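Posting for a labmate who doesn't have an account.
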Amino acid sequence: MYKILLSVSRFISGRASLVVILTAVVTFFFPALFEWVKGNTQTVIIGIIMLTMGLTLRTQDFQLLARRPGDILIGAAAQFTVMPLVAFGLSWLFSQIPAFAPYSVPLTIGIVLVGCCPGGVSSNIMSFLCQGDVAFSIGMTCVSTLLAPVLTPLLVLWLAGAKVEVDAMGMFRQIFIVTIIPIAIGYALNLWLGKKAVFQDIQALMPGLSVACLAIIVGGVVTTVHDPLVESGILLFVLTFAIVLCHNTLGYALGYTIAHFCRFSTAKKRTLSIEVGMQNAGLGTNLAMTFFVATNPLAVVPCAISCAWHSISGTILAEIFVRWDRRQSARA
C-alpha cells in the first residue's frame, strides 16, 4: 500500500503544473466540485501545506540563517520591497487603461496582496529542479514566512489602505495561525521523530500531498471566482492574467538582477530570482477570501490566477535554467 502511495506522490509532485492546470480547468466547468473549500476548511488546507514544509526542516536549516545572515537579509528585503512596489506600480499603470477602470479597486487589492505575501512553498522545489541553492531557498522561505505576520498586513495597509479598510491585526492573527503554528509543529515533529524509519516514509509522501492541497486550494478559488468571471466575461480574465503575468515576470527578472549586482553565485542568482518572483498566492487567496471577499469579491481573482500561474511559470523557468546548463555543457 505504501509503495502505491509513494508512486502516486511522486507522480503528482513531478507533474505539479499539469495537476494544478487540470484542476483549475475541470473546476471551471464543474464549479460544484470544490464548493466545500472555503472558510475554516481552506485555512486548514493551507495549514497542511505549511505543515509539510515544516516536516522537512532541520536544525541545520536554522543554523544556515546564522552562517549566512547577509545573503538571506538581502533576499528577504528584495522580496518585501520589489514585489509589493511592482504590484502597486502595475496597478497604477493598468488603471490608466479605460477597460481596467471598473475593476481597478478589487484587482489592485488582489495583486498588492499577492505582492505582500511571503515566498511560496513550491519555490524550494523549483530551486531544486533548476540546480539552485536549495539551502538558501529554504532559509529565505523561513525568514519571509516568519516576517509575514508583521510585514504583510503593514504593507497591505500602506499600499492598499487608502482604498479599503485593512484589518491589520486580523491579518496578523490569520497568518500566524496559517503559517507559523503548522511550520513550528512540523519542525518539532521532525526534530523528535526525524530518525525513525516510519516518519521518514511519511516525509517522502509530503511533496505529493503539498501539490494535492495546492490543487484543492486552486479548485476552491476557481469555484469562488467562477460566477464573477462568467458574468464579467473574458475581459476580466485577460486583464487579470496580464497584470499577474507582468508582476510574476518582473519579479523573476528583478530578483536575478539584484543577485547579479550582489555578486551571488549562479545557483544563488537562480534561487533569488525564483524566491522573489514566486509568492505564496495560496496564502494570499486565503487572506482575500477572509478579509476582502465580502466588500470586494473580485479581489480574490488575481490571487487565484497567481496561485496557478506561479507554479506553472516556476516550472517553466526551472526548465529554462536546466536547458541553458545543458547547452553550455554541450559547447564545452
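Reply:
Got it, the C-alpha cells are right above this. The first helix runs from residue 2 to 14.
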